[in-house]
Amino acid sequence: MDLLTDPLVQRMMIVAILVGATAPVVGTYLVQRRMSLLGDGIGHVALAGVAAGWLAGSWAGLAQQDALAIPGAIVFAVVGAVVIERMRARGIAAADVIMAIMFYGGIASGVLLISAAGGSNANLMGYLFGSISTVGWTDVWTTAALSIAILVIGVGLRASLFAVTHDQEFAHSVGLPVGALNIVVAVLAAVTITASMRVVGVLLVSGVMILPVAVSQIVTRSFSRTMAVAMAIGVGICVTGVGVTLFHDLQPGALIVVLGVLLYTVVASSAGLARHRRRQRDHAIHRLDDASQTEGAPA
């Protein structure tokens, strides 16, 4: 009970719940669109934004050099997301090539910029793998504001966004602004990555976005239910991961993703076993029916 009254634990749990609930919302659209790795590309661009913010803080002589890290990450992630989407839409390059360029260019730029700021690569570790134990109330309020924006847009526009991510030709035929909605999805992914950065880091953020959706798709059929169950799973693994690290010296972001992988493995295996048993039962029933028809046939 003492832990629940600890301000640090309260901040960690609030941020974990916010990220766990919002990341799968965007992940649902990315999975539907078959662009599950988009988060990795944008995440590395966001890392360059963190380093650029650090450099700007250093040049401005700020007491806290990383004060502009999150704003820098937001700007770079959003711009990167829009660039990726426009390049994909215009057929300038294949989606996987674009994301590979962003992936390597982002992390290389981040290392160079943080070095120019007089920092070391160790300064980037908290953003690479998350540093939820260092969050302050300012971080909580920032994450809350970003999460509310994601939920309002991601859930409020789910019918239109689903149409665009599922079948763009149908979306065109009913008069939806496909180009604008595609950019909305990309920007939502960018904002989600920025909001999740302090919990799991840019290297693992796609896991929190995609794994809950992958599990949910196994046990649900409708799009809305998939999103709702994925949100519940996201909250569950984030809170569990953070809770375990309160008692054991483990990295929260990595543990959250590992929990997601384990959950997917268990659910997928159980579903596969259940399907196998149903097939065996149906086969046995068909054999009995065939045997009954043979016995009842006239000699």
TrEMBL record:
Domain of life (superkingdom): Bacteria
Topology of the protein relative to the lipid bilayer:
Multi-pass membrane protein
Where is this protein found? Cell membrane; Membrane
Pfam families in alphabetical order: ABC-3
Q: Where does the chain cross the membrane? A: 12-31, 43-62, 68-85, 97-120, 140-162, 174-193, 199-220, 227-247, 253-274
Q: Which residues form a coiled coil?
A: none
In terms of InterPro entries, this protein maps to:
ABC_BtuC-like (IPR037294), ABC_TroCD (IPR001626)
What keywords is this UniProt entry annotated with? Membrane, Transmembrane, Transmembrane helix, Transport
Q: Name one GO cellular component term.
A: ATP-binding cassette (ABC) transporter complex
**Into which family does the record put it?**
Belongs to the ABC-3 integral membrane protein family.
Record's protein name:
ABC transporter
Source species, please?
Demequina activiva
